[in-house]
Amino acid sequence: FPAHSDRYLPIVVASVVGLAAVVSVFEPNSIPHDVEELYNAAHARLLQLGHLDKWQTLQYRGHCGGCTHNALLGSMLFSTLGPSLFSWKLVPVLFTALLAFCGAFVLNRTVGAFGASAFGLLIVFSPPAFLELSMTSWGNHFESGVAAIAVVAIYHWYSSCPSLPRACSLGLALAWALWIGFSSVFIGFGMAWLLWGRTTVKHGAVIVASGCAVGILWSLQAIHTTTTVFDTIYQPGESLPQLTRIPSKLWSLFGPRQLVALFGMPHTAGGWIGGWAVAASGLIAAWVARKHSAFRPILALGVSFLAVYSVVRFTVWTPPAPEIAPPG
After folding, report:
1. CB 157 within 8 A of CB 272
2. Which parts of the chain have pLDDT scores under 70?
3. Residues 163-213: pLDDT tens digits?
4. Which pTM value belongs to this model?
5. DSSP H helical segments within the chain, as ranges?
6. Number of neighbouring beta carbons within 10 Å of residue 261
């Protein structure tokens, strides 16, 4: 790799991953057009037709900033390329490219060019479950994960040379992530863990003040919806975290019948081998990198995600035994 590859390599990785994602749009068996997702596409079409003054009220689900976010992006793509399913699928393509850029940025600075390139290749040759999820624009599913990596990238940028403008950028990135959806709340907890005792009071205040910008968007959401925040986070009638659901929530992520679905081969030995290989490689990688500077943000966000995911309503669907989970 040439000198100053840290400046250009993330762009190269993002371009390659983005191109691969565009190509995948032409494979109908791999890329779904989900009914719920198409509500967001219809929202984008109405905005493109001139109903920008109703950008909040046209949203079909309250407290989903990511839905509005994707609709706004889609309306711009429709205005540029014309309304079509292909244009709409460029929204998740952009998120995938952003994921590749931010991940490559962090890895190139902490691990090197090989790590950044390997990250891009893993996205290009990802399991069918990841491809299906990443190319479906629900608004606050895959987008929340991308936001987490983007915030980590800005955290690394801030940590390399702390300054007030960079602190403000980190706070605004957090606000953007939290606007996408309450599924991104774990990012705030993870960043608090990473920054506690490692930043000045002035910089911490700037980060918090900038992050509070999301309150304006949350207020707009609350005004334009009849649902409450608790309707989004908990089951009907609940207003507090339910610790009793923790075992089933963890099983939905790590149960064998869930892992086998990663490669879309639930009835073959290859599916089981592939699922367990992914789980084992993740554990081995975590152990090997446990003392590396790049591992600390992963640990902070990973633990924060599991803590939040384990007590809220939204879940990875777990079919009754012995049925195998579908890809995605």
Report:
1. no
2. 1-5, 30, 56-62, 228-234, 236-239, 257, 264, 266, 315-328
3. 999 999 999 999 999 888 777 888 999 999 999 888 899 999 999 999 998
4. 0.86
5. 5-24, 35-48, 65-81, 85-110, 113-124, 128-134, 142-160, 164-180, 185-195, 201-211, 214-223, 229-233, 246-254, 256-259, 269-288, 295-309
6. 21
CA atoms within 13 A on the CB side of 254: 12
In whole angstroms, what separates CA 146 from the centre of its chain? 3
User: Distance (Å, rounded) from C-alpha 69 to C-alpha 142?
Assistant: 13
Q: How far is CA 295 from CA 286, 290, 291, 312, in A?
A: 7, 6, 7, 26
CA torsion sign for 143, 95, 189, 120 is: positive
Q: How many residues does the chain have?
A: 328
Phi-psi region of 76 (alpha: psi -120 to 50; beta: other; left: phi over 0): alpha
Burial string for 306-318 (b: 16+ CB within 10 Å, else e) reads: bebbbbbeeeeeb
Contact yes or no for 98/145 (Cβ under 8 A): no
Using a CB cutoff of 8 Å and minimum separation of 24, what contacts does 262-268 make? Answer: 262/127, 262/128, 262/129, 262/130, 262/327, 263/127, 263/128, 263/129, 263/327, 264/127, 264/128, 264/129, 264/327, 266/324, 266/325, 267/324
What does the pLDDT read at residue 2? 45
Tell me the one-letter amino acid at 24.
S
pLDDT of residue 328: 45
* Nearest Cα residue to 22 out of 81, 72, 71, 108: 81
Residue 246 CB-density burial (10 A; 0-12 exposed, 13-18 middle, 19+ buried): middle
pLDDT at 105: 93
DSSP string over 221-278: HHHT-SS-HHHHHS-TT--S--GGGHHHHHHHHH-HHHHGGGGT-TTSHHHHHHHHHH
pLDDT of residue 69: 87
pLDDT given for residue 110 in this prediction? 86
Q: How far apart are CA 312 and CA 138, in angstroms?
A: 18
